[in-house]
Specification:
- This protein is mainly α and about 325 residues long.
- It has twelve helices and seven strands.
- The protein has three domains: about 120 residues, no CATH class; about 70 residues; about 120 residues, CBS-domain (Roll).
- Helix 2 packs antiparallel against helix 4.
- It is elongated.
- Bound molecules: zinc ion.
- Zinc ion binds next to helix 1.
């Protein structure tokens, strides 16, 4: 800032610095919100956006349905950044024609610059960055196979990651230690991102045609609503489940999990019953037997639960747990299916 806007008092530089930092964070958030907006309009679940030191990530739980959808979702981010850059430039032009000082002009200038950089950097074809996702969409359309396209995109993404790390090391020992370290860390981060994205695609692929009914546990160990907590604790020890359905005369009433039990003080264990602490059926997220496995996984992840009761025609047919899913994933990926 001092080189672009010389001869300002220190407090102006400090204020401009803080304002610009906030603008950077908001610009990243805007970019991620745009990814999320397009994804949600396409019917995808986006439970959260995380902002952190290297930027932001909008967590999109499913794989896109087709290459066009992937392209649209990936392009939304950089386009929104370029759009924001134009707005900052316009605001700068207006402010400078009105004779505004460095206090106004410098943050607008920085807002323009940072959004151009955000858009451009994300367009690098380094999967899982936006440009890499666009590349994957193109490969996917060309080869007709998402898994193969992801494999190629991951290799290119990893090559970029190594290039970043290499350049970072050179920078570290020549011109700028801090920028060098920064680039190495970004490279390392990109590499692990590429690998975990590939893993996610392999898992989705392994589970593609499976339905909840194929992997759910049908043998249900249920408890009655009048069972006291002390006894439920013993069941937890004996059966090693993380939760029990509560049933009366074959009717599914609710679910009791370890965390429900943990909330009951020990001296009340003989008095409080399953019916008092269970999560009632109306509040429980459930699955149906003919629902794709991926959707059940998305539900568990979005709601932070480890098990879903499987209900068909109002009747409890089974339970599907995260460990059922993990076992299925392991077996199917090991068998190369
Ligand atoms: Zn993006």
């Amino acid at each position: 800032m001092p080189s672009h806007y010389p001869a300002q008092p220190p407090w102006v530089y400090w204020t401009v610095g803080i304002a610009s930092s906030v603008l950077l964070l908001l610009s990243v958030l805007f970019h991620e919100l745009f990814h999320s907006y397009v994804a949600k309009r396409r019917g995808m679940a986006v439970p959260d956006i995380t902002l952190f030191l290297f930027g932001g990530v909008a967590r999109i739980l499913e794989e896109p349905g087709d290459p066009g959808m992937e392209l649209e979702m990936a392009a939304a981010g950089p386009l929104s950044s370029f759009g924001l850059a134009i707005l900052f430039k316009a605001a700068w032009l207006i402010a400078s024609s009105l004779g505004a000082g460095a206090l106004i002009l410098a943050p607008l200038d920085y807002g323009f610059l940072i959004n151009v950089l955000l858009g451009a950097f994300n367009l690098l074809p380094a999967f899982p960055m936006d440009g890499g996702r666009m590349l994957r969409a193109a490969l996917w359309r060309w080869r007709g196979n998402l898994l193969e396209a992801t494999g190629i995109a991951t290799q290119i993404g990893s090559a970029f990651a190594y290039l970043f790390m290499f350049l970072g090391f050179i920078l570290m020992f020549t011109t700028s230690l801090l920028n060098g370290i920064w680039l190495v860390v970004i490279g390392w981060f990109l590499k692990s991102g590429a690998e975990s994205s590939l893993r996610q695609t392999i898992i989705s692929n392994a589970l593609a045609e499976l339905r909840v009914g194929d992997v759910m546990t049908t043998k249900i160990d249920a408890i009655g609503p009048d069972v006291p907590v002390g006894e439920i604790v013993e069941y937890f020890m004996k059966y090693k489940h993380g939760g029990f359905p509560v049933m009366r005369d074959g009717e599914f009433l609710g679910l009791v999990t370890v965390s429900d039990v943990k909330r009951v003080p020990r001296e009340d264990w003989h008095r409080v019953r399953a019916g008092d602490i269970m999560k009632p059926r109306s509040e429980i997220i459930s699955a149906s037997p003919d629902e794709p496995i991926i959707e059940a996984m998305v539900k568990m992840s979005a709601h932070g639960v480890g098990r879903l009761p499987v209900i068909e025609d109002g009747e409890l047919k089974g339970i599907i747990t995260r460990s059922d899913l993990m076992r299925t994933i392991r077996i199917r990926t090991e068998l190369g299916r």
